[in-house]
Amino acid sequence: MKVLVIGGDGYCGWATALYLSKRGYEVGILDSFVRRHWDLELCVETLTPIAPIQQRLQRWHDLTGKTIDLFVGDITNYAFLDKVLHQFEPGAIVHFGEQRSAPFSMIDREHAVLTQVNNVVGTLNLLYAMKESFPDCHLVKLGTMGEYGTPNIDIEEGYITIEHNGRKDTLPYPKQPGSMYHLSKVHDSHNIHFACKIWGLRATDLNQGVVYGVLTDETGMDELLINRLDYDGVFGTALNRFCIQAAVGHPLTVYGKGGQTRGFLDIRDTVRCVELAIATPANPGEFRVFNQFTELFSVGDLADMVAKAGSAIGLKVEVQHTENPRIEREEHYFNAKNTNLLDLGLQPHYLSSSLLDSLLNFATKYKDRVDESQILPKVKWRR
Amino acid sequence: MKVLVIGGDGYCGWATALYLSKRGYEVGILDSFVRRHWDLELCVETLTPIAPIQQRLQRWHDLTGKTIDLFVGDITNYAFLDKVLHQFEPGAIVHFGEQRSAPFSMIDREHAVLTQVNNVVGTLNLLYAMKESFPDCHLVKLGTMGEYGTPNIDIEEGYITIEHNGRKDTLPYPKQPGSMYHLSKVHDSHNIHFACKIWGLRATDLNQGVVYGVLTDETGMDELLINRLDYDGVFGTALNRFCIQAAVGHPLTVYGKGGQTRGFLDIRDTVRCVELAIATPANPGEFRVFNQFTELFSVGDLADMVAKAGSAIGLKVEVQHTENPRIEREEHYFNAKNTNLLDLGLQPHYLSSSLLDSLLNFATKYKDRVDESQILPKVKWRR
């Protein structure tokens, strides 16, 4: 089966492309490299030195004999996208190709508009291209657990059955996204749902939690295949960021009270979840939603775990509660379901001290590359 | 109080601008005339001959002594929008300035992207401009009842209290929009809700039903003030369209079974609802939602009423069930709440035989301007 990975040069996309290639899928990567461009714009860099994608793909071929096709361009350019689809003829499309940072989207008006237009138009283009020529292709779209916000009731997977005034219906789960970026994902979800309904397309929305870790079996095969690892205030996410902070002796920056609870997963589960979604596609007309995480943690708990793991290997680690740049509940109920992927056979890599050790070692290995001026958050939600 | 009416050259916007001006508000109109441009693109025209806005405003001044400021430009141009706001300094902004036709948005990919980008970016620009310089200004935004779709439970006003697994929360009402246009309004609602939450802006989302009628006290004062009346397959809406079909001897085109039930209101109530929203603004940080309609009708019922009214004045009227170009439920439960505006004092103009007579007379007066080739729907939802 042919799988096109849009955004295959990014953190999740790269790991996914290699994993699927290794598993026997015929993989193509479509990427515009705009993520690398944004690094330049913000003057930030992945902790790990990542090679140009052409070199990455060459090395992958040399090591495994497997070829991954590369299509360089932007899916907001419909003519380009349509041409690629006709050339590659995918059976499934994995869509990571969006601006994925909440702080980036909150920098200013321009970045908010860029994020929403880029993400919404790219996905609309994809839906129209599929409708026109590949209506049976399965769209596997990366959403985010952040679409749900932090409601005071259990979070179901995409839909909720509501009884109201003696009647009953199963409706899309209400969304309370917390940034211009998260909003763009909510817009996407509504658009994709509609396209499935009227055109009979098949789609799976993977509402992913916060991904941690850097190694997968494939990206660990060679230094040239190494994955990116972001620690800066814009693209860095909790846990990965904490480990790097610990490695360089920077206090772990917990925003506010630290009671913010989120879904998390190991990047080795990200790639497996995508494969599970591909292997059992949604039905024609179905907009299927999976909550893609394996465990719930509060940010404060994570920091404590990293502090403990760091101390065990001799690092001095301090946890610092800093002013929260975001506007979000810092103490709240959070209970989200994630049974759909488990039912398909996902066997989670739960967060362990060995994973933390590995991440801390990675961070220590590359700590000379850290720019400490980029660690603290500069983008604020408040006006 | 100064009120800026964005989209004040359109059907609802024009009637609203004059009504508010008459009621003593200091009114400015911001409009790009892109609606007139789309008429040209599609080669359709309002049944009633509308004058250029400059002439309209001059006549309004001549008749009433009141001046309405005019700002010609597009709110997707942030620099222009920001300049206008600083010049006019509105206390409230009424935002009608969006692409508002479902069939237009469904013509093809380009029109879908145009609709979503135009509507979402225009509204984002407005939110950022308010945040930067007018955080206390009240945004009165036109949404649509079509955001809700046709759930099998009662439709509340914007929010619903859900009990689930023994817990309870009040969440945004789930949305099931039925076109790329309706989706754009759902995107707007989420964006505005977020802006209120994080920046403390105040906004009222008017989820308006299908508007009918052409006369208001103000637009009826003079031929030069006449409002637009659309009957074509793209911009024409039920009831107005039926009356014009009746006038020219065209069968009333009911799409499918005709059991599609929607909220409706007289344009004289539209203008009053907007004033009620302005007069009692939302609180800082509040995203307030009003369902703006006065009665529920099925499309089939409306056609029967027009047929009856037409026959009474000697027209031969046939009701024809045509293939439904849309994908929507044609028989369904529909019960929407609309008490918020009634509680503020709205006294509805319910649909009456005299209103139908007036509309039929209007249609008859201008029937020589009808282009019958534009009546049937050409845009289809199905792929």
Automatic annotation (TrEMBL), chains A, B:
Q: Which InterPro entries match?
A: Epimerase_deHydtase, NAD(P)-bd_dom_sf
Domain NAD-dependent epimerase/dehydratase: from-to ranges: 3-291
Under the heading Gene3D superfamilies, the entry gives: NAD(P)-binding Rossmann-like Domain, UDP-galactose 4-epimerase, domain 1
> One Pfam match, by short name?
Epimerase
Highest taxon of the source?
A: Bacteria
Similarity comment: family membership: Belongs to the NAD(P)-dependent epimerase/dehydratase family.
What is the protein named?
NAD-dependent dehydratase
Q: Which organism is it from?
A: Stenomitos frigidus ULC18
